[in-house]
């Protein structure tokens, strides 16, 4: 985690230097990843993030039901409380059908603020519950070498799990893919340097604390998502944490989808400039606003159809492949090297006109190659995990 945090901070800082071409203050702005260099990989990963967030929301909503079921049964067994996450995934998709009609980032600030507040809420609750669980036993269940090899885990399976874990960690530091879109004046470079330093430090602190205390409390039986464990108590506080996760994901889905929405809509307007279906905006006065007020919603038919299709497709995929950790690991692996490392490094080298074989050039190239290897092994581990999960689901 510390290595990923350091790499992410360094490459995010490099990317901040590339927001403007030429002069970092007066140069031409790049408002999106596509404007800066290349956005095809970004678009794929943004869609993948929407799928990952949809799966996660369904899993956490299912956890609320299971926690309450176990509590009502006196904590005897959670087997009878198991159910399918698909209805909850679909419910999340229905909510996104509505939220996806928010036109752009500028109108999304309130949802983003709620999501940020919720992330702190469930992080503090989760950490507190893990510490309480660890304190109740008084011993560390985990080991320095991780999951023990035995009847349930073979050496090969452990290797694949290690590789998959690298993808999960990479996904946790995937904000680079929207960094250019969310940079803001004044002095974007200085603002984002401070923001990168603060965000990486805070998130890494929470990741380390939650991961270490969770593994100390549960050991080899640690679930993929600790907030879905019925072993944490009190159950009502665990419910609050899971509700906070769902609310956070409602906003995160939009933050990561808006760049893709904007990209497709801008391309459609460029390709079909005379199409009323694509370009016509109809002002609809919102309930409660006066006739001369400014509370209007700009309705666009293409936006309605395209974004609805996007949400439906991402929801259907989430229902078909509801394996959160494996999907997240694969997404993290695919996006880590190209978006978090390769493009920022190459953009910085081009922007600063670094001489070939200079010390800085060599160090950046070595960093890029090392992260490329990590991406390959993480992707392989995540694919192996998805295959195993598909076999298990067919067998059951």
UniProtKB/TrEMBL annotation:
The chain crosses the membrane at residues 44-64, 85-102, 108-129, 198-216, 236-256, 304-324, 330-350, 362-387. It is found in: Endomembrane system. Residues 1-18 form the signal peptide. The keyword DNA damage does not apply. This is Amino acid transporter transmembrane domain-containing protein. Residues 1-387 form the Amino acid transporter transmembrane domain. One of its GO terms (biological process) is auxin-activated signaling pathway. Pfam families: Aa_trans. Belongs to the amino acid/polyamine transporter 2 family. Amino acid/auxin permease (AAAP) (TC 2.A.18.1) subfamily. Keywords: Amino-acid transport, Auxin signaling pathway, Membrane, Signal, Symport, Transmembrane, Transmembrane helix, Transport. The keyword Membrane applies. Its main location: membrane. It is a multi-pass membrane protein. One of its GO terms (molecular function) is symporter activity. GO terms for cellular component: endomembrane system. Carrier protein involved in proton-driven auxin influx. Mediates the formation of auxin gradient from developing leaves (site of auxin biosynthesis) to tips by contributing to the loading of auxin in vascular tissues and facilitating acropetal (base to tip) auxin transport within inner tissues of the root apex, and basipetal (tip to base) auxin transport within outer tissues of the root apex. May be involved in lateral roots and nodules formation.
